[in-house]
Design goal:
This protein is mostly beta strands. The chain has 2 helices and 13 strands. Strand 1 and strand 2 form a beta hairpin.
Length: about 180
């Protein structure tokens, strides 16, 4: 397994060792000891799977209180995945990073607690897997507007298919600081 750090602290791309032959392939999407050796001592409380069509954009989602870290990957298709630092007081507050994830490249994306997360589907369909460090709490569910001008995320599509919730999400500057995770050095 190879860890590729991004410009945002803690956010990284993971490239597993893929073993393939004429029958198909095998790789470990999570191995506690190997992840710990890469500096990622993770415990998961919930795993989710979603399937979306081309042009769907989900995000930018976060949970507060009870922030979730997410290990995400694609089982079918291809997505462009984004993490945004929304930790109040963080030196990288409001900055984002992205990774292309797909069934062909087998990449995983680790998004620690305190980041908003979103993705858009580039293939005909995508089956997406999230492993979360805390349980989902509907009362803590929150969003940041996907096209917030101040974030200036370079999404690879211009007219995405959005949920009503994502269409109505506030810009980051419109969110009360008490409703955002706190940066801890």
């Amino acid at each position: 397994m190879k860890r590729i750090d991004t410009e945002l602290p803690g956010v990284c791309v993971l490239e597993p060792d893929v073993h393939g032959d004429t029958r198909g392939y095998f790789f470990e999407s999570f191995h506690a000891a190997k992840f710990a050796a890469l500096g990622l001592d993770l415990r998961f409380a919930q795993t989710n799977v979603s399937r979306s069509a081309r042009g769907v954009l989900r995000g930018l989602h976060y949970q507060w209180p009870g922030a979730q870290g997410k290990l995400v990957g694609v089982l079918e298709g291809e997505v462009w995945d984004v993490a945004v630092d929304i930790r109040r007081g963080s030196p990288t507050f409001g900055r984002w990073t992205a990774a292309s994830l797909g069934a062909e490249n087998h990449r995983l994306f680790w998004i620690p607690e305190g980041y908003a997360h979103g993705f858009c589907v580039l293939s005909a369909h995508a089956t997406f897997m999230y492993q979360c460090t805390t349980l989902y709490d509907a009362s803590a569910d929150a969003s940041v507007r996907w096209d917030d001008e101040e974030l200036a995320i370079a999404w690879p599509l211009h007219a995405p298919l959005l949920s009503a919730k994502d269409s109505a999400a506030p810009r980051l500057r419109e969110i009360d600081a008490a409703c955002l995770p706190e940066y801890r050095a």
